Amino acid sequence: MRIYDGKYLSVTSVIELRKPFNDSSFKKWCESKGIDPELISATSSILGSKVSEYINDISRGLEWLTEPPVDDLESRLYSAVESFTKEWIPVKTEEVVYCDELSYAGRYDGIIEHRQSHKRYLADWKTYGAWKKSKYKRVSSKIKKARWQLSMYSYAMDWKSDLAVIVFKNDGTWELENLEYDSEMIDWVKDHQKEILETVSAKSI
Prior knowledge:
The chain is an alpha/beta fold. It has a single domain (3-204), classed as Lambda Exonuclease, Chain A. Helices cover 47% and strands 23% of the residues. The protein is built from seven helices and seven strands. Strands 1, 2, 3, 4, 5, 6 and 7 form a seven-stranded mixed sheet that branches. A hairpin with a 4-residue loop joins strand 3 and strand 4 (104-114). The radius of gyration is 18 Å and the shape is globular. The protein starts with a strand and ends with a helix. 29% of the residues are buried.
């Protein structure tokens, strides 16, 4: 669980309260495939961070700061980012937003604008399963969590435009999926303020 400024539960931690990650099932699946769960978790985190860093550098005109890819997989993900930014401008990236009303905070990935239509989205970047040799396969439960995440950012920002998850794939391509604002998630956060505040209090001690 992550706490911002000693009084705000992170958006991802709120989601974890509602839908805890099934660690035992994940480990059993890894065992059945003969892979190390800790290695997969670390690799997934690194790939996500690399993609976020590259987009963040591009948004600031500092691409030269991005470390070169270390292997073919990273090269393909970087190619996906480069293809994406030819069509979409990352207007803002990695900004922290606070919701005083509902005691949460979080750092959204980006606000993007289409280079021709100028349509804007509040977006989240993902590299779902990029470590696998197989092609990207949409998993509805993961998309649902991205929808919850973006809806919470949207509520905190009073964002009136659209939401999207951008998936950067291990074949060098990307996909934008439009997501609907989830008012039910906001209602859940409102109804569970006691649990959220108790979690903040426990972690702040």
